[in-house]
Amino acid sequence: MSSTAVVLNNIYTGITRYYFPVVFVIGLFTNVANILIFSYGRLRTNICSWYFICLSISQILILFFSGLYRMIVTGWNNGYDYSQISMDLCKFRSYGVVLSVVLSRHFLCLILLDRWMITSRSASLRNKSSLKHGRWLILFSFVFWMLFTLQIPVGNPSAPGSGCGPTPGSIYFMFYTVYTIVIGILPLFIMILFVFLIMKNLRNRGRAIHPSTRATEQTLNHLPIRQSRSDFQLIRLSVIQIMVFIIFNAIYSLFPLYVSLTMSQVRNADRRAMEAFIINIGQCLLLTYAAVTFALYILASSVFRQEFQECCKRLYQQFIRIIHHVR
């Protein structure tokens, strides 16, 4: 192992040993807090809040399948990978990592899709942003990706010591390469597109509505103030969150494309070590993003801050009642 590889490996080992535990604990508690806040009060009546809840669930899965496992293997166990001797564990972990990542990107896209519909001039589009349609879409999303991601354990080799990835040169290896590139890049383009569409809708919202859509104008003018404020806050959260997501996930999303484009190039030991370090940093940023969403919501949304205060009051009152009951 070259000196560069040793230095980079030591840096990453330090990150997984000391930084990952902090990110894991903070991310676990803050995503649970996100779920509690979005599922109570006025926010729970908005389907976009349920997409945020599903996003937090997928981020908890990322913390467990990717973060916790790396802490155990790299940080505390000196690199001894149990998945290399247990193919069931290997396949289960690969399935969990891919499923959790693709679910998080999927629900981020659904959040933006919902905000685009709610800002549209079309009453029929706005009506589709409802709990009735959204709950079926959530159920379909989970079932579809859980079934589709089964190609990960099915396509991976079954021989111990062959690694958790597909065999190079195989048909499934080609499919998996294209798949990782698509699920890495396509969601980014979809998110950027919907951000521009939302901004366009917001700019057009103050303009005069076409005469043939008088009912739409009346609908807009008679929206409850509280609901309109909640919608605006969720729009703001969505746009800011996507910007932060792109920053934190750029390396992890684009690196498979780089690997496929440079696959034919000969790599020396230092280059392999540098590329491994870069993708590890990309995974580190992915985990960091899963832990900062709560702080992002607190800073960006006054409605979220109010609901957080109300949630804390309810939990405190329940705790006091339990204490009095025990006494």
Automatic annotation (TrEMBL):
<keyword id="KW-0675">Receptor</keyword>
<feature type="transmembrane region" description="Helical">
    <location>
        <begin position="92"/>
        <end position="113"/>
    </location>
</feature>
<feature type="transmembrane region" description="Helical">
    <location>
        <begin position="134"/>
        <end position="153"/>
    </location>
</feature>
<keyword id="KW-0812">Transmembrane</keyword>
<feature type="transmembrane region" description="Helical">
    <location>
        <begin position="18"/>
        <end position="38"/>
    </location>
</feature>
<feature type="domain" description="G-protein coupled receptors family 1 profile">
    <location>
        <begin position="30"/>
        <end position="297"/>
    </location>
</feature>
<feature type="transmembrane region" description="Helical">
    <location>
        <begin position="234"/>
        <end position="257"/>
    </location>
</feature>
<feature type="transmembrane region" description="Helical">
    <location>
        <begin position="173"/>
        <end position="198"/>
    </location>
</feature>
<feature type="transmembrane region" description="Helical">
    <location>
        <begin position="277"/>
        <end position="299"/>
    </location>
</feature>
<dbReference type="GO" id="GO:0004930">
    <property type="term" value="F:G protein-coupled receptor activity"/>
</dbReference>
<dbReference type="InterPro" id="IPR017452">
    <property type="entry name" value="GPCR_Rhodpsn_7TM"/>
</dbReference>
<dbReference type="InterPro" id="IPR000276">
    <property type="entry name" value="GPCR_Rhodpsn"/>
</dbReference>
<protein>
    <recommendedName>
        <fullName>G-protein coupled receptors family 1 profile domain-containing protein</fullName>
    </recommendedName>
</protein>
<keyword id="KW-0807">Transducer</keyword>
<keyword id="KW-1133">Transmembrane helix</keyword>
<keyword id="KW-0472">Membrane</keyword>
<dbReference type="Pfam" id="PF00001">
    <property type="entry name" value="7tm_1"/>
</dbReference>
<dbReference type="GO" id="GO:0005886">
    <property type="term" value="C:plasma membrane"/>
</dbReference>
<keyword id="KW-0297">G-protein coupled receptor</keyword>
<feature type="transmembrane region" description="Helical">
    <location>
        <begin position="50"/>
        <end position="72"/>
    </location>
</feature>
